[in-house]
Specification:
Layout: H1 3-20, H2 27-37, H3 45-55, H4 63-74, E1 96-99, E2 104-107, E3 113-116, E4 119-122, H5 124-130, H6 141-156, E5 159-166, E6 171-172, H7 174-181, E7 193-198, E8 202-208, H8 214-230, E9 234-239, E10 243-245, H9 255-265, H10 275-290, E11 295-300, H11 309-322, E12 325-330, H12 343-348, E13 354-357, H13 361-364
Parallel strand pairs: 8-9, 8-11, 11-12, 12-13
Antiparallel strand pairs: 1-2, 3-4, 5-7, 6-7, 9-10
Helix pairs in contact: 1-4, 2-3, 6-8, 10-11
Amino acid sequence: MDTAQGLAGQLVRFAGALRGEGVRVGISDEIDAGAVLVLVDLLDRPEVHRALRIAFKVPREAWSTFDTLFDECWGGSAVPGFTRPRPRRDQQGPLQWRWDGERVRLTAGDAGESTVGDTPSYSPEALLRRKPFDQISAGELAAMQKLIARLALRLAARRSRRLVPTRGPGTVDLRRSFRRALASDGDLLCLARRARAVEEPRLVVLYDTSGSMEVYTRFLLAFAFALRRVIRRVEIFAFNTTLVRVTRMIAPARMAPSLEQLAAGVPDWSGGTRIGACLAEFVDRHKDALVGRDTTLIVVSDGLDQGDTALLAGAMRELRQRARKIVWLNPLLGDPRYRPDAAGMRAALPFVDHFGPAHNLESLEGLLRFVA
């Protein structure tokens, strides 16, 4: 299915459903809505909601009707009288807009939710996203790696609020348009346009490869491999009792051999951990070159430090003064009974902007709103 045709069909059905509920929507409104969707991030559901409500000029008293029908068109709830586009026979699952690495396309088959009749139900993919890493079976490894790669693509393709000049579709830049017109005696022969920039994040990721993290290491490092494949400005370190820069040891397309190479090349793999000493070494050797005001530092560790916690606090303080954000992901946080009572975790938390879980894929998706 062509993306533009799918989008147009979706808008026509949505506009028809609004008219069926008494909301006045004209052809010109549909044209405006089609033009607006070219300018917004189709993966940002709240942004699409606001854009369509404005383009369709929905009065305040009809907002609840609009919200209900919008949920049916762009979400998964069932609304009588509204028929969403049906996928072809060779497709499975509901139609959804997704980033494929080049552009947003309307696709079907492996979405997070599927429907049977009018009753929403979770697909195997949705269940896999919520399944703890330490419960993933050998038969689920390939599917999980694909989901992890897709998450990395989403992180790499986040659009900023900043507008930059573009030759494609975008909002009209009147100042540049008038400046161009000076070259043609004031005639606006070509309108200059701006669009939201796709800004690649700058990341430094430090992975704890000690024995207490062993059940999570494979999947968390798979996430690092996927980041390395799609984001140019990413540096990856492994640490336990020593710190090793592993960025160039990773072959993103060859996960199993890379894991074997890392296990052989990182001293004390699956052994003890001295987080403070390793972070202090990172500060001494790499802080000036790799950490700046545009850098997000991600530490993936359970915080079980066997070394000097004062050293850990000092290293975190220096990194906090230089980095844009510090994110600490702890797999143990996925257990509702967990409390960050370990001395290492308590020493690090005052300098952390976001403390989140890392026990399943869904928890890693929380990075999207912090690393954009």
